[in-house]
Amino acid sequence: MVVSAFAANAQEVKQIAKANDIQSYKLEYIEELGGMRHDELVMILPDSSIVWKAETIEGFSLGGKVGGGFDCGQGAGSIIGYNFGVVFGYSGKLMDWDVTAGYSQISDASGKRYGAFNAFFEPSIAVAKWGKNGLQTNKFYVGAKVGLQEARNDSQFNYEDDHIIVNGTSVPTSMGLAYGLKIGYEHRQFMGAVRWGIEASAHTYDVKHEFKVNGETIKNSKDQRFFVGLTFYVKGVFHKKARNY
Q: Tens of pLDDT along 67-122?
């Protein structure tokens, strides 16, 4: 029968290794993993020999997120729509450094829904970690986000004389500064690459308005909008492995 021991039982593993005259396996794979934090699985075989496997916890990650959002603020009504994107980053001991590219449904000045791109740099810090057997496989985190949000500009032009009346509206889009906060829960797979979580975030962005007559700009203004999103995400972490079998 094969018995497994987790890193939380390190002292017991050392005693078993010593009893079997195995002194160096731990140092060997720590060196292979570059001194990084790791999960460790140790198996003691019926013939009393020991085999081990380890994988680093930190690493670069790539994943996707999907969910919904609530767009509200000045200049238009409030709507509920979709919210999804991709995320690339680095997962560390306490800090995660993510870059996200998303596509969300927001509202223009007339209340019409449309899809808009966004991109954010999103650092976060773990404020609590926990898990069974002392393994930190769950975490609660908070973070910030700063980047760009696409939005439609409400550009209007109006002209009238004794013979002609012209009223028109065009809605080109532009990328503007956006920033906000996020909180979330994440669970990581022990000895594996998969992480999944639930995240709530909110950011503010500006919608510009440009009023024109005969093609000449006579007034500029802007409305401040808010977007609140709730997403489920899955990441895969690229990390180092070491083993003696």
A: 999 999 887 778 999 999 999 999 999 999 999 999 999 988 778 889 999 999 99
The pLDDT mean for the chain works out to 84
Rg (CA), the chain: 27
Q: Quick one: which of 179, 174, 180, 170 has its CA closest to 222?
A: 174
- Residue 78 CA: distances (Å) to CA of 51, 53, 60, 179: 59, 52, 37, 19
Type of residue numbered 9: N
Of residues 238, 243, 234, the one with CA closest to residue 64: 234
Q: Which of 193, 197, 199, 198 is nearest to 236 (CA)?
A: 193
Decide if 240 contacts 33 (C-beta within 8 A).
Answer: yes
SS3 state of residue 240: coil
CA distances from 196 to 95, 137, 145, 192 (A): 16, 11, 19, 12
What does pTM read for this prediction? 0.80
> HSE (CB half, 13 Å, CA atoms) of 105?
15
